[in-house]
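Side project, low priority. Logging it here so it doesn't get lost.
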Amino acid sequence: MQTKIIGTTLPVLEVGLEQGDKIVAEPGEFSWMTPNVQLNTTPMAAGAKGILGVLGRAVSGGGIFMTEYTATGGNGVIAFAAKVPGSIMQVDVQPGHGYMIHRHGFLCATEGVELTIGWQRSLGAGIFGGDGFILQRLAGTCNAWVELGGEIVTYDLGAGESILAHPGHIGMFQESVTFDITMMRGIANAIFGADGLFIAKLTGPGKVWLQTLTLPNLAQALSSYMGRAEAVQTTQAGIAGGVASAVLKNMFGGS
């Protein structure tokens, strides 16, 4: 199997499959492929063990179904494009060395991947974490590709060393890292600040990958332009309708 990541701002992962090679992804995630790549969509993939495993994967941001892509009758090619501006990262997953990734970070993986819900270790994270609480756990024995938004900032935390971050900026971290939710420092900051009451605390040892672009921030930045675009379209439609009405009235002598 040969892989390459093409592009920078909106990259695409292109996978060259040899006979019998298999790639696992969520249904409909591929961008293009050669005709000899066969699809097999099933809930019992990506390490799912029974209905609880399937439902847990769905809650964590993955789908109930997964699709296995296999080359038949010779070599094939399949590609997966990023959905938002950012980066595609390849990670080597081994038993005992898994990763926790944000809910929509899984792009695809080779056979042997185990994609499950990533429950956090503390009650605080469960109650107050929101989207930061429910993560995807990437385990098994495979090569996997993860999509992170914007630029990536990496921290290699030593034992007991911590960093605070908004949950949405946490793209991925090694399983050895402890994740918790803590209160924003200072009563005034917590009550009157716009940063929210709770932030995530990541404690080493292990690596942490932070992403500068989050989907909520992207949606918020685009929302005002989307409303403006709809208003412009409505105005243009109204003007066009008025012009057409006037023309028809003149043609048929209407008043």
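Brief comment: Helices lie at 50-59, 123-128, 187-192, 215-252.
Revisit when time allows.
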